[in-house]
Structures are given as C-alpha cells and as structure tokens.
Amino acid sequence: MKEIKKPEIEPNAIDIEMAVLGSMMSSQQALYKGLELLTPEVFYQPNHRIIFEVIRDIAEGFAGVKRIPDILTVKDELEKRGKLEEAGGVAYLASLLDEVINPEYIEEHAKIIIEKFLYRKTIEICNKISKECYEEEKEAERILDEADAMLFNVRTYKLKGGFVPLKDLLKPFFEELTHLMEGRGVELPAGFHELDTLTTGFHKGDFIVIASRPAMGKTSFALNITRNLSIEFKKPVGFFSIEMPKEQIVQRLLCMEANIEMQKLRKGEITAEEFLRLSEAAERLKNAPIYIDDTPKISIQELRAKARRACKEHELEVLFVDFLQVIDAPKMETRQQQIAYISASLKSLAMELKIPIVALAQLSREVERRADKRPQLADLRESGAIEQDADMVIFLFREDFYDPETSEEGVAEIIVGKNRNGPVGTVKLGFLKKYMKFTDYPPEREAGEFL
After folding, report:
1. Can you give 101-130 as a three-state secondary structure string?
2. How many CB atoms lie within 10 A of CB 417?
3. Would you state the pLDDT for residue 340?
4. Among 101, 175, 407, 443, which residue's CB has the most CB atoms within a 10 Å radius?
5. Torsion angle of alpha carbons 131, 332, 384, 348, nearest 10°?
6. pLDDT by residue (tens digit) across 424-438?
7. Residue 321's closest CA among 286, 271, 355?
8. Which residues, in sequence order, are bridge partners of residue 319?
9. CA angle 23, 25, 27 (to 5 degrees)
C-alpha cells in the first residue's frame, strides 16, 4: 500500500487572516462582525493572534480607553506592549490594509479561518492519541474517553449563529400557532392533562430533567410518559435503560397497561382473566413505536452515537435516559466536572437532534434531613450544572413514601421547579403503586385505588 506523506504545513488560510484583520482596521462593520465570530486562538500565525488581541482590546476598552482600532491606534498599542516587532512591524501592519475586503464577506471568511483551525486542532488531538496508543501506558478506554472530551471541546469553536432577521422567525411561529389552533394540541404531550396545561408539553431541542430520591417512582413516571407518547399520540420514543434490563422494562410496561400487580406477574400467579388482559396489553404495546437500549455503563460518547443512529433509523421524536448519574464519563478531576460534562453533552445533543431529551436524575440525601421533604433545585445531586443546562426540571414527591398513614396515600406531586419557557408550579397525579402506574388526579379515591 502506498504510504501517504504528511504535508509539512498545517491547514491554514494566511491570506484570508490578513484580509480579515485589514478589514477590521478599516471598517466598523467588519470590526464588530469579526469580534462576534472569531477569537485569537483560531488564527494560524502567531503575529495575527497578537494583532487580533490588540484590535479587540482597543475596541472593547481593555487597552485603557475605548477607541477605534485603526492602523495608528493598533500600532500605538503594540508599541506600548512591546510587541510591535513580534506582530510584524509597521510595514506588515500597513500591508494588511492592501488585503481589505467587502465587510459583507467577513462571515464567509471567518468560516474558512475556523474550519482551518478545527483541522489543526483535530490533527493535534489525533497525534496526541496516536502517541499515547503507541506508548500503551494508559488503558485504551481512558484514552478514548480523553479523546472524546478533547473533541467535544473543539466542537465549541464552530461558527455560532448570529442575528436572524425577525421576518425570518415569524413564518415558523405562525405555522406552529396554526398547528395548535387546528386542534392538534400540544406537540409532544406527557399525556397528563394538568401537567401538559402547565408545561405545554415537551419541546424540540429541550433538555428535561426528572428528579427524585430513589424508589419515588421516576422510572415508572418516565415509562408512563413513554407509553402515552407512543400509544396515544403515535410518537416514536427512544429509551436508554442503563441500570434496568430491557426485560424488566417490558414487564413494567405490561403491568401498567394491563393493571396487573408486578409481584403476581413475577411469580406467575395470574388468573385467566388477567392473562387475557396481559395479552390485550401486549397487542397494544406491540404496535407502539418504543425502542429500548439497555447497554450497561454506557459512555456518553456511545450514547450520543447510538442516539444519532436511532434518530436516523427510527425518526425518534423523544429520547429518555434512565439515569444521568450512571452514564460513564471521561476521567476528570472531580465528579462534579464529570456530571457537568454529561449534562452539557445531553443538552447539546438535544439541540443537535432537534428533539427533547428527558434525563432521570437522583437527588442528594439533603432532602431527607429536612422536615418538608419536597425537593428543591439545590437538591440536584453532585452538580449545579444540571440545573443550569436543563430547560425544565420536574421533581416527584409522594407523601405516603415517608408517612404511610397520610391522607395523601396514592397521590404524587409533580413539581415543576424550573421551566425556562413557562411557569413553574405543582400538579397532582394519582399513583397506583402495585401497577407502577400514574394517572390524572381522580375526583374520588380510596386506599390508593382510583375510581
């Protein structure tokens, strides 16, 4: 096989870098567009990084007094910092003005500069990983995790969207409004009337967190919503079950659909009539577009890859992850950093796939130390980043979990503690524990059974 020779020079666009810097010193339109889109590190030549930093500092007032960064003020500031020669000298600064382009083209030129930067960073990461693989001093899994973390950071340098004219946003708004007015209702409803009224359902690109203490019913709640979306609304749903095998997921879905006690099902102690109900439930579930992945200790990079593939193959409209804290993350200094990385990755994935991602999460033990054990945002375990990244945070609370004698037996409080695009509040649902089933809150109940 013919050996591929490595080029001696890394990918770059020196002439375009010169054109952008010259334009930024000649036009305020080019200046502010360049400052919006670029950072010093994306420039290939070290002297271009220095010049860009000075242009930025002058324009933003970091150089003492806020001024217009033309060739004279840039030269003056470089001299003050003792970096004029390092930047190329007066003649080089003057030569940049010969490369000036139409300010309208700055964004296209910025894209090219960033593209070359991404090539260089990817080469740097690949070289580092290649070296570590040859050395065999680290475990292969750790090398892969570190590679994923580095590549994830590189992706943040991609060109970000700028301002969009209002007229371009009005059409999709009225299309969505028309959709709702035609009676099609909430786009992605949880299937519980009061909750959907409060939240208006799930929205594309949102990162939603459902959190509670262990055994409060969050997996059952997520499966109830999965069932409602797929059976009632025909929405394809993906479900990552990281700690519970898919066979148990199926059992739970069958029990809540057929109103059969889980214990009776596991022991095989069911009547002929219950068997018939199970068969009918299985028939309904068979046609439901639910896709389950129970890979244990799945890494965040593997989860992302599988989610992308599942969305393409099955056209998923919602993705559940049970649960956030057991996703495997790259090695970092603290557990908080790992959780923050996972949380940011899930939010980024939701925006990339344009679907809501609903992640279940455990709450810290601080809840148990309070007299009022209703969860708060501060109880999100191990990281405030979850609260920051989430568009919506939903807590589950059941008084009868702590007090079996309470008058609120069989009642679950669904607490919307954060809602970036709407109100917060609490709604009540019925909870049939033996079926692991949530229902709209009924007008009558006795001993946990709902009429």
Report:
1. CCHHHHHHHHHHHHHHHHHHHHHHHHHHHH
2. 22
3. 85
4. 101
5. 20
6. 999 999 888 888 889
7. 355
8. 238, 357
9. 60
Asked if residue 244 has pLDDT above 70, the reply is yes
Angle formed by the axes of helices 28-37 and 106-135, nearest 10°: 30
State the Cα–Cα distance between residues 283 and 278, nearest whole angstrom.
9
- Residue 346 token pair: 């899930």
* CA-to-CA dists, residue 185 to 180, 191, 197, 237, angstroms: 5, 11, 10, 19
Question: How does residue 168 score in pLDDT terms, banded at 50, 70 and 90?
Answer: low
Question: How would you list the strands of the sheet with 318-322, edge to edge?
Answer: 290-293, 237-241, 318-322, 357-362, 207-212, 392-397, 411-419, 425-432, 437-440
H/E run at residue 321: strand 318-322
Q: What is the mean pLDDT of the chain?
A: 83
Distance CA 111, CA 24 (A): 16
C-alpha distances (whole Å) from 206 to each of 203, 241, 391 are 6, 20, 6
Burial zone of 176 (CB within 10 Å; 0-12 exposed, 13-18 middle, 19+ buried)? exposed
- Report in angstroms the alpha-carbon separations of 222 from 14, 218, 254, 399: 53, 6, 14, 20
Tens of pLDDT, residue by residue over 188-232, are: 888 888 888 888 889 888 999 998 888 888 899 999 999 999 988
Digit-coded pLDDT (tens) for 119-159: 999 999 999 999 999 998 888 877 877 787 777 667 656 65
Longest dimension (CA), the chain: 93
pLDDT at residue 358 is higher than 90: yes
More confident residue, 291 or 446: 291
Q: What is the DSSP letter of 205?
A: T
Min mean pLDDT across 127-131, 164-168, 267-271, 329-333 is at 164-168
Higher-confidence residue of 34 and 380: namely 34
Report how far residue 196's alpha carbon sits from residue 189's, in angstroms, rounded to the nearest whole number: 6
Q: How far apart, in Å, are the Cα atoms of 436 and each of 138, 254, 255, 294, 448?
A: 45, 10, 8, 20, 12
Tell me the C-alpha to C-alpha distance, in Å, between residue 338 and each of 325, 392, 395, 408, 419: 9, 21, 22, 38, 24
Closest CA to 55 of 35, 85, 29: 35
Residue type, 139: E
CB 412 within 8 A of CB 217: yes
CA distance 187 to 370: 38
List all residues 6 or more positions away from 44 whose beta carbon is below 8 Å from its beta carbon: 10, 12, 13, 14, 17, 116, 117, 120
CA 57, 61, 66: angle at the middle one, nearest 5? 115
**Positions marked catalytic:** 243
Q: Which two tokens stand for residue 156?
A: 């943040």
